[in-house]
Structures are given as C-alpha cells and as structure tokens.
Specification:
Elements (H helix, E strand, L loop, with lengths): L1 H21 L1 E7 L6 H8 L2 H4 L2 E7 L7 H6 L4 E4 L3 H8 L4 E11 L5 E6 H5 L13 E4 L5 H12 L8 E4 L5 H6 L5 E5 L2 H7 L3 E6 L6 E10 H5 L1 H19 L2 E2 L2 E2 L4 H12 L4 H6 L13 H13 L9 H4 L3 H10 L7
Parallel strand pairs: 1-2, 6-7, 6-8
Antiparallel strand pairs: 3-10, 4-10, 5-8, 5-9, 11-12
Length: 341
C-alpha cells in the first residue's frame, strides 16, 4: 500500500512538473497604474494560466523605462505611450509594436483633464481656454502626447504654442507645484486630479475631450521576437482582454459604479497601493477598449505634431508601429464586447 501511494505521489509530481514546463513564460512590464488592471485581473483570475501561460508582471517606474528592455528582449510585452520616444526607438531599429489598447481618454471617461490653479479661477483671472495665454502649463514629459494635447487646446482658443510656457512635470508633482504657485495650469491625471480638487489647490477646468475628443493615452507593446510566436501572443491577448472586459463591465455613467464595482475598486486599490478606496470610486476612471482596438486617428495626430516640432525626424508612420492582428484574432475567438454606457 505504501509503495502504491509513493508511486502515485511520484506520478502526480512528474505530471505537475511536466505541466509547469509546458507553460510558456511571458515577461510583462507594468507600472501598477489603473490602466494595468487588465493584466492584473488576467493574472489574478487565472486567465493567463488557462491559456498555458506563466506571466511574470515586472514593475517599472514608468513606461519609458521599459523601451530598452522591450527592445533587447528582456521583456516580451509592456506599457507604452504615444510619445516621440516610441517612434524614435522604432526608427533606431527596436522591434516594437503596439498590439492593444491599455488606456483611452474619451467623453464620460476623461480621466485626464486640464486643471487650473484654484485662486486663478476664484479671482476670475481664468475663465476660458484663451486665458492660457502667458501661463505656465505643466505636461508630464517632453515629447509626451500631452504636448500634442495642449497644442489642441491652444488651437481651439486661437493661440499658438509660443503663447504659453511649458513646464515638464510628472503627475505626482502637480499638487506641490499648484500649492507653491509654480504652475498655473496642467494636463493632469486621476486620481491626482480628484486629490488636488479636494485639497483646494486646483480646479478640474475641463476634460480633455472638450478639445481633444479621443486620446490614445496608453498601449500594450510587444517585442518583435515575442510577436513572432503568434500562437503564444494570441493566447496572451485573449487572456488580457478577458481581464479588460471584467474591468469594463464595472464602468457605468463615468464611474466604477456598475455590477461588481466594490470588488473592482478593491482590486485597483491592491494593485496601485492607493489605500483610499473612496478616492478611487470618486475619480474618473480610465477607459480601456474591451476589444483591444487603439485609436489610430489620435496616434496619427500626435505623430504629426511630433514631426512638426522636430521631435520625430524620420518618415516612420503609425502603421509601421501598430499591429492589430492579435486583437482581431482574440475578438474572433472571444466575440465582440459591448461598450459601456
């Protein structure tokens, strides 16, 4: 009997080891921002495992720091933004492709906004976009898509880029800069915007959608060597979109307020480290397309701006960088998901 039990245990151990060896390891860079929720849920709920994948989520301080390890193959996939740096990296020969949406700013889900120092609003010194003239305006980084965004705000106001002083400042530093009156306005992001409003240092003047209808803010990037294994990449995207769809199902009326909202807010809190769950509930949430589609018009507008400013000097195109085939294959298997109301 003991010999039978030992033999059974050894057999089960061998099978388990073989299963572990069969799992494909995929290394993915994350920033633990809300837009990473699809990856987080796909891992937590076993969607990656269901596809025979062992996904390692590796945290980075920013998406920009993932570009080099993505290009070298140390990462298979990771976060990206529509920045000049991405196009320049591709032009240098890095094999990178945009393969899925990871964050879109649009009507009702404008989680990014134009914020203005509260005393300027209270005094009547800032009443319209035209009042941007002569102001110090913060954007997250040089060559970031937010430069293109503020450009659109200036155009709508009949102003030129030279009419403002651009200040490059990461989102977490906006609250201090407003408090110290070091900036007058900014392109800010949630949940920092809600925090600044509650602290009385800034006002959410308008969502970006009032002058930039749809902005592709974050994307999932794939390394060329990883993407060459189409079967594995398609499995990865299928699992990822299942996670995204679980998140999108909780969106309602511009908030995380649909079925399962409480549990989703708890998951976002655990992922981001934001302990104040009420703040997450109050903030405008990021939208992620449940079918993985990226907004090509937004990407093209941003790239055109980068080229006009000399931030991108090559003839690289958006089509050179975007590969929609993986989300198309995933949706063909999963079915088309409805968009939130």
């Amino acid at each position: 009997m003991k010999r039978l039990l030992l033999t059974t245990a050894l057999l089960l151990g061998t099978l388990a080891g073989a299963h572990a060896q069969d799992e494909k390891v995929v290394r993915v860079g994350t920033t633990n921002l809300t837009s990473d929720i699809g990856l987080y849920l796909a891992d937590k709920k076993g969607y990656f495992k269901d596809q025979g994948l062992k996904v390692e989520l590796i945290r980075f301080d920013s998406g920009a720091k993932m570009i080099a390890p993505l290009g070298s193959g140390e990462l298979d996939a990771g976060a990206g933004a529509a920045s000049a740096g991405l196009y320049n990296a591709v032009n240098r020969g890095l094999k990178l492709k945009i393969i899925a949406d990871k964050g879109t700013n649009l009507k009702d889900y404008s989680y990014k906004s134009l914020t203005v120092r509260k005393d300027l609003i209270d005094s009547g010194a800032f009443k319209s976009l035209a009042d941007l003239k002569g102001k110090k305006v913060a954007v997250v980084a040089k060559g970031a898509a937010d430069e293109s965004v503020i450009h659109q705000a200036l155009l709508k106001a009949g102003l030129q880029d030279s009419d403002i002083e651009l200040v490059y400042l990461p989102f977490p530093q906006h609250i201090t800069a407003f408090t110290n009156k070091a900036i007058d306005a900014a392109i800010s992001s949630e949940p920092g915007t809600t925090t600044m409003v509650r602290n009385g240092v800034a006002v959410r003047f308008t969502g970006l959608d009032s002058f930039y209808p749809v902005q592709q803010t974050a994307m999932l990037l794939g390394n060329g060597r990883f993407l060459a294994d189409k079967e594995t990449t398609e499995k990865f995207i299928r699992a990822y979109l299942r996670g995204v769809r679980d998140y999108v199902a909780t969106l309602k009326d511009g908030k995380i307020a649909g079925p399962g909202a409480k549990e989703m807010i708890a998951d976002i809190s655990a992922m981001t480290g934001i302990k104040n769950q009420e703040l997450i509930a109050a903030a405008v949430p990021v939208f992620i397309n449940p079918n993985g589609t990226v907004d090509m018009a937004s990407l093209k507008a941003d790239l055109e701006y980068f080229k006009s400013k000399g931030l991108v000097t090559s003839d690289v195109t958006v089509e050179d960088v975007v590969d929609p085939t993986f989300v198309e294959a995933a949706v063909a298997k999963l079915g088309t998901a409805p968009l939130p109301k």
